[in-house]
Design the sequence.
């Protein structure tokens, strides 16, 4: 029996990890895989044990550079042929500043980098360049997939779980800010966000729904399609 594919996730938060785990399960179509949350560190209930948010992803990238003692791509984490690394940052970060996270040692002064939307990839392409700077790279490291939802991962959740929502069904859904508000406005039994807080238990309860809806999300969201294509292009034959 072949060894299961190991997929490590560097994400902004625990709910992002749950969504991406569902997405990977959909893309692998039943193939066995081992999901590993690298950032944030999570306990057995998927509550975070370490700093999260986009700053957490930034600090993880910089720590990985330090550990490599050279190009990030030389780190053994990126060297295994039977593992992949997913690094996620939402595109709404493109309007932020390093000072927002009290970051004073960024390798480049390249935030904010937000561009007019549409098209969504004007901003996500700029953000991906920023992420490569965090990794001290000019191209994506081996066995690595960048994930840059526009405007946030909640856009994918909204489109997947509530496709009839007016916000979700709009042609420019990837350019609409604050999909969180739409998730918070759902009926109580279907509400994934309450009082501005993302409910990890609700996200887990809807994981199968996100997985099943992934083909529709790919069709609606260009960044979901890009992530899917990039990920599947790196999956080794099993």
Sequence:
């Amino acid at each position: 029996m072949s060894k299961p594919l190991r997929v490590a996730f560097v994400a902004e938060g625990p709910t992002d990890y749950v969504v991406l785990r569902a997405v990977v399960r959909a893309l692998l179509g039943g193939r066995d895989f081992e999901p590993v949350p690298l950032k944030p560190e999570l306990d057995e209930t998927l509550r975070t044990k370490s700093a999260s948010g986009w700053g957490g992803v930034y600090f993880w990238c910089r720590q990985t550079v330090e550990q490599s003692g050279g190009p990030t791509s030389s780190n053994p984490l990126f060297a295994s042929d039977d593992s992949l690394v997913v690094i996620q940052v939402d595109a709404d970060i493109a309007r932020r500043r390093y000072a927002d996270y009290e970051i004073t040692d960024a390798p480049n002064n390249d935030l904010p980098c937000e561009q007019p939307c549409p098209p969504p990839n004007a901003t996500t392409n700029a953000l991906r360049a920023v992420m490569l700077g965090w990794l001290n790279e000019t191209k994506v490291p081996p066995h690595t997939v960048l994930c840059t939802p526009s405007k946030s991962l909640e856009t994918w959740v909204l489109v997947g779980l509530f496709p009839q929502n007016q916000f979700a069904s709009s042609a420019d859904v990837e350019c609409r800010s604050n999909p969180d508000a739409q998730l918070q406005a759902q009926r109580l039994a279907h509400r994934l966000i309450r009082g501005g807080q993302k409910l990890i238990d609700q996200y887990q309860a809807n994981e199968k729904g996100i997985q099943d809806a992934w083909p529709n999300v790919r069709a609606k969201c260009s960044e979901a399609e890009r992530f899917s294509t990039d990920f599947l292009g790196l999956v080794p034959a099993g």
Observations:
- The chain has nine helices and six strands.
